[in-house]
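Appendix B, record 7
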Amino acid sequence: MFKPSHLTDEAANVLAGAIDERVYFIQSKRWIAYPKAVRILDHLNKLLKHPRTTRMPSLIVYGDSGMGKSMLVDKFKADCAMGCATDSTPNPNRLLVVELSGRPTERRFFSQILAAVDAPHSPRASIVDMERGTINTLRDVGVQILVLDEIHNILAGSWREQRIVLNTLRFLSNELKLSLVCFGIMEARDAINGDVQLARRFDAVTLPRWTAGKEFEQLVLAIVRNLPLREPSVLTVKGLRRVLQLSGGVSSRIFRMLNDLAIEAIETGDERITDNSVETYKPVSENEVAFQ
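Structure tokens (predicted):
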């Protein structure tokens, strides 16, 4: 089967489908590889293969809402599951993802970890029992990396509560010889820096809003190549500048804008995104964010 050179294999596979099928594909949440995201995933995979040592390396990824942090978490989790499925000694629990929600307390933190591995626990248990249960459970399932999404929620607690949670993170890393990977908005930097000893263990990566340049062009190209349009879409500097202007450099808005333009191109029969279609694009809401 002939594959158009301007499309990825995944996009080309649905090109012959009905309009509804192609629109559904465009609207589906899917992974788009671009250089910085690939570099972060490479770093995460190195952590997964790192031997257990006294002081495990860790990573924190900062970025505004809508910059694709949760998509990175989902992709890493999916890759880990796929790798475990082909591993001669599979352990799907080497990676554990916990989303910190609500005002963090020591009890809630342990409860969220135990819930993430479907471990039974009593809400009336003492903190000491919950700590012991959490350590034993994580050790038994062989967690290598503990991913904490929305780490900035630590800041919702009092200064004392923040210190307790940060101390607990450091303790778990030491006791279980596991790496910590944290994702959060820019304020997350303040949360981690609240514990100097813990902060020193983290490599930090920032996902800033997009600006004009080669990496932005690579992002747009990666997105466009994954849109099942029959004709190649070519945007000049003018069109790219307009995409930046309308999106504010936020990844989710860039995705939403190009997805909307692709659907319009399919429905009108134009089958490509042009400078003119970008220029006339009207977002439903200037504050709309497609992916968190």
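Remarks on this record: The longest helix spans residues 69-86. The first strand starts at residue 58 and ends at 63.
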